[in-house]
Amino acid sequence: MLTFKKIDIRLFLGVLLGIVLLYKFFPIEQSAKRFEDLALGKETTTTFGKVSDLTVHCEGLSDLVECLQGYEKTGSGQSVILWLGNSQVHAINQFEPGEETAVPELHRKFQVTGEYFLTLSQANASLQEHYLLFAYLLNRLPIKELVLPVVFDDMREDGIRTSLIDAFKDQKTADSLRSSEIGRILIANHGDQDAAGNDMNALQDTFQEHSEKVLNSILEEAWSLWAARPTLRGELLGSLYLLRNWAFGINASSTRKMIPGRYAKNRDAFLAILNLAVQRQVKVLVYIPPLRNDVKVPYDIHEYASFKSEMTSIVQENKAFFVDLENLVPAKLWGTKNSTTIGGGQELDFMHFQAGGHRLLARALYNELKKQRLSP
Prior knowledge:
This protein is α/β, with parallel strands linked by helices.
């Protein structure tokens, strides 16, 4: 076992190595690449599906206008089925040209019945973020059904990513969030931040606020490195993430333990989503997502079983529908991904599967949505 002193030395050397790697592998001209996709690696391809050049799958507020314009163009007046998810929804393992995720197939299936299927997904999305997006989109689309995965891994996430912060500025969204305790917590923690995650509460309408905006604008125009600073910060954190895993022997198969405080906040957000859905007469289909099961799962088995039991109970108590799709995708349709540590080889991927898995997921969700409509 490594001593504490040895770990400190490895971390120190690792930080230095991380800076070198940052400049070697992430040159400035590539800085527009989304940081959240770096963890997927070259074995897993991100694809936000389209149907006949129609954008039906977006990531967040940055590209949401394309999804809204698509709805106005071809689906205006139709009821909307909204799917909120994480990277499992927009990533394909061992991608081959022409393959697609479950999203386009589901959109085409519901096109036939005059309904509009729309999807938003972010890597490692927490239920807190789903709550914010659901409240935001309810004021922009006639949502009649919500499809929502509850992912044990993502119960370890906390807070709101900076790319979604601007949703707090919408008055109707903020009013909706204030109806729940977790919503008020989110507003208190993030409502006064800007899109870069900076706390703007003390700067509102001050000379400093305006001067900083002007200075940032000038620097971004004159210096590409300054404009790329949010992405570079993410890429540096990504390199340090690999180094941390290397220092402590963490890999994709390591057991991920529950973080009680974060779990509780995401559970509260889940309850708030279901309550809001009841208020707005939106049917909700909650599902346990597919999980690789040909090897030991990277969870504490007792914590995972408790999580599934609690999610099932919450759904039943709050007038929603539930399906467990954990074993939907067979082992042959799962793949590998790049190492999550320095110098490691390919690792098993427990979250992302091949295109065949997406076809199975599309059909399963379609059948469940049809089934729930027959239920009183």
